[in-house]
Automatic annotation (TrEMBL):
Organism: Rhizobium paranaense
Function: Specifically methylates the N7 position of guanine in position 527 of 16S rRNA.
Taxonomic placement: Bacteria, Pseudomonadati, Pseudomonadota, Alphaproteobacteria, Hyphomicrobiales
MF-aspect GO terms: rRNA (guanine-N7-)-methyltransferase activity
Entry keyword set: Cytoplasm, Methyltransferase, rRNA processing, S-adenosyl-L-methionine, Transferase
List of residues binding S-adenosyl-L-methionine: 66, 71, 119-120, 135
Catalytic activity: guanosine(527) in 16S rRNA + S-adenosyl-L-methionine = N(7)-methylguanosine(527) in 16S rRNA + S-adenosyl-L-homocysteine
Entry protein name: Ribosomal RNA small subunit methyltransferase G
Superkingdom of this protein's organism: Bacteria
Any Pfam family matching the protein: GidB
Subcellular location per the Swiss-Prot or TrEMBL entry: Cytoplasm
E.C. numbers: 2.1.1.170
Length: 205
């Protein structure tokens, strides 16, 4: 099986398939994604999430903010299962969604843990990370506020963030309060979307 042109093992394929089955089951009772996108689950959500991991395909400590329906956090945790090390901390304050995420991690034998806390409180239970991911959560300047406690502890931290066609406005707004290195990766799934890779974020004095 290939995801965005990258081969994955039969074991990973099986884990992703089982996640898709769990997702379809749980989505009947709780709102995991926009209902109009469920029929395009593999391309719109699973493959779209996988490209985040493919930008940093090595063992690392990840924090996924607002994990919701598992994108990209659960997909990252499944892909990490092929690695010798690495871990995803999924932050989701909604208790029903957190329960769904825990079932997915357990049944898909993925490498991660779920923290049912507010993002602002998460650093108390997750003191360190190498990479922060988020998808369809908040504007860039807000995401930088969320990421700041971890960035202060790790100057080499990377942020990998899905953004839509309005990303340039978000970047311009964020630069009013923040300094950061930026690399734009065009989405391989959504023509009008990008993945923004930020490094060394710090508040302007």
């Amino acid at each position: 099986m290939e995801l965005n042109g990258v081969r994955v093992s039969r074991e990973t394929q099986g884990r992703l398939q089982h996640f898709a089955e769990l997702f379809q089951k749980w989505a009947k009772t709780i709102n995991l994604v926009a209902p109009s996108t469920i029929n395009d689950l593999w391309q719109r959500h699973i493959a779209d999430s996988a490209q985040i991991f493919q930008l940093h395909p090595k063992p690392a400590r990840w924090v996924d903010l607002g994990s919701g329906g598992g994108f990209p956090g659960i997909i990252t945790a499944i892909l990490l299962a092929e690695q010798a090390d690495g871990h995803v901390d999924l932050v989701e304050s909604n208790q029903k969604k957190a329960a769904f995420l825990r079932v997915c991690l357990r049944e898909c034998e993925a490498r991660g843990a779920v923290h049912a806390v507010r993002i602002e409180e998460a650093v108390k239970v997750i003191p360190y990370c190498d990479v922060i991911s988020a998808r369809a959560l908040a504007e860039l300047d807000v995401l930088l506020d969320y990421a700041a406690p971890w960035a202060e502890r790790n100057e080499n931290i990377r942020l990998l963030l899905h953004k839509g066609r309005d990303y340039e406005r978000e970047v311009e707004k964020a630069r009013g309060r923040w300094e950061f290195g930026l690399v734009k990766h065009n989405s391989v799934v959504e023509r009008d979307s990008v993945v923004l890779e930020l490094n060394r974020p710090r508040r302007r004095i």
